[in-house]
Amino acid sequence: MKVFKLAVSSIALSLALVSTQAYSRDTEHHLSIQEALQSSDFKDKLDPSIKLYFGSQGHSQVSSRIASGVVTNKKTNAFAKSDEEACRWVFLSALLALQERAKNDGGNAVININSFYKRELMQSNTDYECHAGAIMAGVALKGDVVTVK
User: Fold this and answer.
1) Is 50 a domain residue?
2) Is residue 72 part of a domain?
3) Each residue of 102-137: pLDDT tens digit?
4) Which pLDDT value is given to residue 95?
5) How confident is the model at residue 126, as a pLDDT?
6) Residue 130 phi, psi dihedral angles, 5° rounding
7) CA neighbours within 13 Å on the CB side: how many for 70?
8) Structurally, how many domains does the chain consist of?
9) CATH code of the domain covering residue 57
């Protein structure tokens, strides 16, 4: 009987470890900004009056700097979604948060938008960084709220 209990305990421990590893997945993705912006998920959701400029993309002359280094860190439910789908949704959420901050602060653009996951800056004009797990996906962005002419 002791051997049976030991075998059952061993199996339960193994299953718990496998389960923990599955839920703690943290896959890093570098995904296309343009593909996300052109997806149906984004259609009519972003405010066209608040312009978004990624990395070192060119923009109109800045007439006033309102807030530098604004950070948004968003998470979304990734359950039963592909990593790419969950990443697009959370990227949209992060961009909406930046636009909301710009509106509230009186800006009309967010420039120098870069990924800032776990406070690690990833500068890119073309890609954003997303981390996806079994149940959550996350995107952190950092940018400057400004008024452009």
Assistant:
1) yes
2) yes
3) 999 999 999 999 999 999 999 999 999 999 999 999
4) 98
5) 98
6) -135, 140
7) 25
8) 1
9) 3.30.110.70
DSSP 116: -
Q: Answer whether residue 96 is part of any domain.
A: yes
Alpha helical stretches, state H, the chain = 2-23, 33-38, 83-105
91 pLDDT exceeds 60?
Answer: yes
Q: How far, in Å, CA of 138 to CA of 77, rounded?
A: 9
Judge whether 139 and 128 are in contact, CB under 8 Å.
yes
Closest of 29, 14, 143 to residue 78, by C-alpha: 29
pLDDT of residue 1: 57
Q: Can you count the helices (H) and strands (E) in the chain?
A: 3, 6
Residues linked to residue 111 through DSSP beta bridges, in sequence order: 144
For the chain, how big is the Rg over CA atoms in Å? 20
37 within a domain of the structure (yes/no): yes
Give the range of the structural domain holding residue 47, as residue numbers without chain letter. Answer: 26-148
Looking up tokens 């389960």 gives: 19
Helix H or strand E segment including 139? strand 136-148
Percentage of the chain beyond pLDDT 90 is: 82
Nearest to 96 by CA among 79, 121, 113, 78: 113
